[in-house]
Amino acid sequence: xxxxxxxxxxxxxxxxxxxxxxxxxxxxxxxxxxxxxxxxxxxxxxxxxxxxxxxxxxxxxxxxxxxxxxxxxxxxxxxxxxxxxxxxxxxxxxxxxxxxxxxxxxxxxxxxxxxxxxxxxxxxxxxxxxxxxxxxxxxxxxxxxxxxxxxxxxxxxxxxxxxxxxxxxxxxxxxxxxxxxxxxxxxxxxxxxxxxxxxxxxxxxxxxxxxxxxxxxxxxxxxxxxxxxxxxxxxxxxxxxxxxxxxxxxxxxxxxxxxxxxxxxxxxxxxxxxxxxxxxxxxx
Length: 284
Ligand code: NDP
Fold this sequence. Notes:
The chain is built from ten helices and eleven strands. The chain is α/β, with parallel strands linked by helices and 284 residues long.
């Protein structure tokens, strides 16, 4: 079997066009969705991500501001900046680009962002709301994965989903979103005994490990849906995912490529959440 490729770039473009239309409608009512991104220090990868977020905001007609703080900024100064943005009516979404320098407590920073502007969906209030099936800002990468499946016509109810990885930003929340949609979910991680035993029973595998080409054909059931979250460099420096694409795509039913799979959806769902936050102000 040769897998159907799930084209994240195409699906993201479609979603972004829908978001741009909604943004225009809000602008007609006098509200321009606004995103503030805080970048601390000069991490090259973080800078690239932040620039992309700004560019996408502009393309979709949103207002965006970038606040750059030096690596040496104190936690107090950062928290004060967030407080200021929490009270700024032109800003509907606040994102602090992670990772932060070691002297800053990431948890404290995340918890200082107003849950109403937490467009990354990392605040414990949004996580709790997501877990209890209430309306919430959903974390962007997991949410993007759900949209990819929906747009590809892949049903979830009753399916066995195996999530490899249990980070707070990808593994744990994506499993929860599948559970909310009535899948049976198994989590695997670095202490899992006999990974292949679990993954080879999966109808849907989510690979969020951070190790290049980690999921091989032997891990995958014939015809399974394989979603590759990983962003890694292989030994030659080429961008690759957590899935050994060539061999797995011969066995899977559906597969996401890297690049061009999950990646473009993350930023799209960030835009979606910022729009959602701006829309919420209409009813408050
Ligand atoms: P983390 O490093 O936080 O988590 C990795 C997870 O993989 C951990 O739960 C870890 O287990 C598990 N793991 C590590 N080794 C093994 C193993 N041998 N067998 C089974 N499980 C293992 O990574 P993230 O969740 O933040 O990211 C995962 C990947 O996704 C990375 O490549 C990252 O770059 C990418 N990413 C991509 C995004 C996108 O937009 N496409 C967004 C975010 C991340 P344990 O908990 O036991 O340590």
